[in-house]
Amino acid sequence: MTFRAPSQAELTAFLQAEFPQSRCTLEALDADGSVVLAHAVGAAELRPGNTVSGPVMMTLADVALYVAILARIGIVPLAVTTQLSINFLRKPRADRRLLARCRLMKLGRALAVGEVWIFSEGDEEPVAHATGTYSIPRERA
Amino acid sequence: MTFRAPSQAELTAFLQAEFPQSRCTLEALDADGSVVLAHAVGAAELRPGNTVSGPVMMTLADVALYVAILARIGIVPLAVTTQLSINFLRKPRADRRLLARCRLMKLGRALAVGEVWIFSEGDEEPVAHATGTYSIPRERA
Amino acid sequence: MTFRAPSQAELTAFLQAEFPQSRCTLEALDADGSVVLAHAVGAAELRPGNTVSGPVMMTLADVALYVAILARIGIVPLAVTTQLSINFLRKPRADRRLLARCRLMKLGRALAVGEVWIFSEGDEEPVAHATGTYSIPRERA
Amino acid sequence: MTFRAPSQAELTAFLQAEFPQSRCTLEALDADGSVVLAHAVGAAELRPGNTVSGPVMMTLADVALYVAILARIGIVPLAVTTQLSINFLRKPRADRRLLARCRLMKLGRALAVGEVWIFSEGDEEPVAHATGTYSIPRERA
Predict the structure, then answer these.
(1) Which of B118, C29, C43, D76 is deepest in the core (most CB within 10 A)?
(2) Where does the Thioesterase domain lie (chains A, B, C, D) (predicted)?
């Protein structure tokens, strides 16, 4: 049986089932393999200074990496983060969603490494940039 | 007026006021300047594989750094994360709280850098290790 | 007097004067602000496994960031690295130069953050990716 | 045949054979598994501002991780760095050696993660702190 990459609908259904409280949504799977996610921004996401908290952006980056990997290898739920680094560049807007674009830079048998650019929706300058590594368990979907 | 470092009660009150939804609690301020925080672990913190999600540990690390800095310089709410890196070492237990111990390695006028060791409560081997940098705005408490 | 960005020749002369033993060379300053550097690869750069050592790539990334910053703000020699992270993706070739392309993602008054893609010359897939932060002293050229 | 960890003399001989140009030396193997290395500091290590260049400290951190791993698993030359992050904390002295203490935080079958504290010899406050991950090829010594 030929491997068929999951569709956006299948990935969305998986995220909703496994992470029902998440405020991340899958917005697009692009032809070049990158994925675009959004994170709602409301009172729960804000911190002193009326800006989006770092943990929200870290969560978005981590989920974006997870989705980018599953979009390539199939829904392998047990892929786990082993390392993540993030630079916070600019203060995000408190009244816009966050958008994240993730592209993988390496997809090996055991490890995947990707980068994530995070923006306040509608703005051109990124608010954060992350790179992360996931460990992929041996059995793939 | 001499600078007086905030007490554990003052820091706890600040966290509860600014981050009412947070599941992090300040457990101890140690004599050497390190701080110990805990994060409750329940269904909201778990992910496929019955383990604690990476974002929960990243959040705990970030809050621990924030508290460690405020414990030293006073309650300066606008201190913000500029960079964070985390290594996930072992699978955390699904039935224990997470504990985090943070110590600062540098506290300058404009930047503070610290490291955070994260454990499943009761276990000796760390589940994660993080380092992070905060930017400190010019006016201190 | 209007600020004039340094030329490729001026930056090259600066590097040669301050880092006479360096095997890094400035190859290009691109219109979008990114810089391209090369690092010679010979016996001095190799390690067991007949591949280029990690420290050579870290050095190249660090110098690329430095040059990218100086190309924008002028020759400010005392700019110093405060943080650097690197992911090693693929084994570099032992018989080609390394090339590094660096673009800044943020250039503030006090801090600059950039990313560096490293390749074996002639290959399309990157061998490493780095992000780093430099502190910029207050007096600029 | 029982596994016997390499001695300090064996590790030193290996480093000298494989990295003859290196200015790193193995100073101690401590009972708790940590290793201590030194790096000579002379004109070749200095940069503008009369301080030790970042790449020297990155090299020292990387070699310290390598030695810490080989000290535990035997001389497996093909272990390679996959990720390294470093925070530069204070300006190192231009007239002292650098010392690095490395301890592993995780030693798995395929990956090892460690942290490195770097000092100017004789000073108590660290000049840098690094964490890094090495990939360990399947056949061990």
Answers:
(1) B118
(2) 50-126
